[in-house]
Structures are given as structure tokens and as C-alpha cells.
Design goal:
Shape: globular
CATH topology: Spore Coat Polysaccharide Biosynthesis Protein SpsA, Chain A
Helix content: 25-40%
Strand order of the largest sheet: 4-1-5-9-6-10
Number of domains: 1
Strand content: 15-25%
Number of strands: 10
Structural class: alpha/beta
Largest sheet: 6 strands, mixed
Number of helices: 6
Length: 235
């Protein structure tokens, strides 16, 4: 029997710091279109679903080939609702409507650097390792063990003073969530309701393909990065 695999793209309509963030034009196209196209190009998904509370976002998503089979309830579209409840809602809705899934990939709507080959890599890792989840990570650009803070007296101090004389080469590589996609084994996710667990495996991305987009400054930075990547043809 073939596995049923879906993509879920959360895209609520009430962004405050960047109005209409999920469909704002990024390098000439609605930013959500990059996530939809990457999912399509991965050629893994039986269905690509956008979870939104906005009719406007729904229309844009459908124009790029995604499905919007439901409008997300208002209680799951506020400033405090995270990825986990939105994914659980979509998976349960699909199951209740005759489409229970085996695997899913939650892809963020504001991930213009996302690459289909990394989505595929995540799926293969998830199955090979029989893991609960697999998600994108990248390295910090500077050793976090040499991080500094400003104390109450206004002076600089180290978080970890024991590493004051440690060489960068002697410190371990440290990673952070790249904020692009999260693969999950549906059965385990519905039971455990976790993305980060002791049974999560990483898809390691190069730093030049990772950029948080939370503010207008982030947006401008990302567009400049995208422009350079297009010129150099290194995406």
C-alpha cells in the first residue's frame, strides 16, 4: 500500500509587524508561492494544503495550485497559536473527511529559500531512521559558547566564562531551527504532539539559504539575499 503524504502550509491573515505577510510580494511573487512551488517540485505529496483563516490568502494559494479545503477556525488564528495545534487541526480535519495520512510536512509560508531537494532529504531521513520528526536546521555563524551579555552594572561579561580562552575550533558546532519545514510521522505526531523530541533528525541547510523574516528589515535583507542567489545561480 502506498503511503499518503501531505504538505500543510500555515498562513494566517492577521500579521501585524508585516501586514499581509504571507501573500506580500517577494521578488515579484507572493511569498507563499515559493513554498507551494517547492512542495510541488518535490513530487512527494498527494495533497498540498494551505491552512488559513483568510479568504484572500486562500484565493492566492489556490491560484498557485494549492488546496484550501477548510477555513481555519478563528481560535487557531490568533497571535499565540503555534505550528503544532495548526498541524493537528489539519490532520484531524483530513482524517474526519476520509483522508487519513501517514506522513506530513509542515512548510512555512514565508520560506522563499526553501529547496525541493531538502524537502525530499527530510522525508527520506524520516523514513530511514523511523524517526518521529525531521526538520531543517543550520549552524550558528559564531560559537555560542563565547557569547556575551551586558550585566546589571552595564559591563560586558561572558555567559560561559570557562570558555574565555577556548579556541573556536575546539568548541562544538551548534545548530538552530532554520524555520523552513517540519516532517512528521502522522501517527506518532497525533499521539505525542511534539516537533522537538529525542527522536528528531536534522536536515542541515547552508546558512546562505536561511533567513528569518519577522520584520520589514528581515524582509529587505531576504530580498537582497535572494537577488544575489539568483545572480550567482547557486540556489
Amino acid at each position: 500500500m502506498n503511503n499518503k503524504v501531505i504538505a500543510i502550509i500555515p498562513a494566517r491573515g492577521g500579521s501585524k509587524r508585516i501586514p499581509n505577510k504571507n501573500i506580500k510580494s517577494f521578488a515579484g511573487q507572493p511569498i507563499i508561492s515559493y513554498s507551494i512551488k517547492a512542495a510541488q517540485s518535490a513530487d512527494l505529496f498527494d495533497r498540498i494544503i494551505v491552512s488559513t483563516d483568510s479568504e484572500e490568502i486562500a484565493e492566492v494559494a489556490k491560484s498557485y495550485g494549492a488546496e484550501v479545503p477548510f477555513i481555519r477556525p478563528a481560535e487557531l488564528a490568533d497571535d499565540f497559536t503555534g505550528t503544532i495545534p495548526v498541524s493537528l487541526h489539519a490532520l484531524n480535519w483530513l482524517s474526519e473527511h476520509g483522508f487519513a495520512t501517514d506522513y506530513f510536512c509542515c512548510i512555512y509560508a514565508t520560506a522563499p529559500f526553501i529547496q525541493p531537494e531538502h524537502i525530499i532529504e527530510g522525508f527520506n531521513l524520516l523514513k530511514k531512521r523511523n524517526a518521529a520528526t525531521a526538520f531543517s536546521v543550520t549552524t550558528f555563524p559564531y560559537p555560542i559558547f563565547r557569547a556575551l551579555k551586558i550585566g546589571e552594572d552595564g559591563c560586558i561579561e561572558m555567559f560561559w566564562s570557562e570558555h574565555e580562552n577556548s579556541r573556536s575550533n575546539d568548541l562544538p558546532e551548534v545548530y538552530h531551527d532554520a524555520g523552513q519545514f517540519y516532517w512528521g510521522n502522522t501517527k506518532r505526531f497525533l499521539t505525542e504532539k511534539k516537533i522537538f523530541s529525542s527522536d528528531s533528525v536534522p536536515v542541515i541547510l547552508p546558512r546562505y539559504l536561511v533567513q528569518d523574516i519577522d520584520t520589514l528589515e528581515d524582509w529587505k535583507t531576504a530580498e537582497k539575499m535572494y537577488s544575489v542567489l539568483q545572480i550567482d545561480n547557486i540556489k
